Amino acid sequence: MSFQERKKKILMILDEFEALSVMEISRKLSISPATVRRDLQDLSEEGLLQRTHGGAMKLDNLPFVAFHKKQTANTESKQEIGKLAAAQVVDGDTIFMDCGSTVFAMCAHLKKLNKLKVITNSLPIVAELIDTPGIGINLIGGELDKERRAVHGDMAVQHIDTYHVSKAFVGVDGISLQNGLTAHSEKEAQITKAFLKNAEQVYLLADSSKIGKDAYVKFGTLKSIHFLITDAQLTGPLKKKIEQEGVRVLQ
Length: 251
Hints:
It contains 10 helices and 15 strands. The chain is an alpha/beta fold. Residues 61-69 have low confidence and may be disordered.
């Protein structure tokens, strides 16, 4: 049975039983406990289930982990980008993390660090990291957007403005040479601008489907960011032109 087949079956039985142990999944699918553990870890990193002590449970049962629909799009690219972004973080860093699904993909890899401070407006990030030893969390205060599971608004910006961090990890809805950084939402653009303003280094996480595209709210130029972390699909003249703007592309 391939991983994709096992993945579907694991999610189906979790949907039926809501929470199961590794041994219960092993018996139901006739696969080894070691394989189940590996599959559960992969599915957790994709944001498709929640690991528990000795097993897993479906996300619907958790008040803060249910994430917006964007998380399921371009999953493989997001996981690769998230892993590469997390590799830029070192012990002792204080970082901003926004509420984007690609930024969320960093979480599984950040858990390996011994000392880290995360300042975020994302409830899923809080839920994912809250029990991780060595990671301190500063949840930005403000108005809660229930659909995005994130905090926005003027109070949130004021909160961000009281801090200065070494690195910010943010996402966008579009990035282009003509219009720079763009978003579908004014409130998300407002938060991202505050992150850009208060970080020494800015890492923009965007899969190649967003590069060369524009949303309707313009909030920053390419010179607002230091690094673009993307997938291997960004090549050729466009990549070169982005780098000529002073942005280092990491793939």
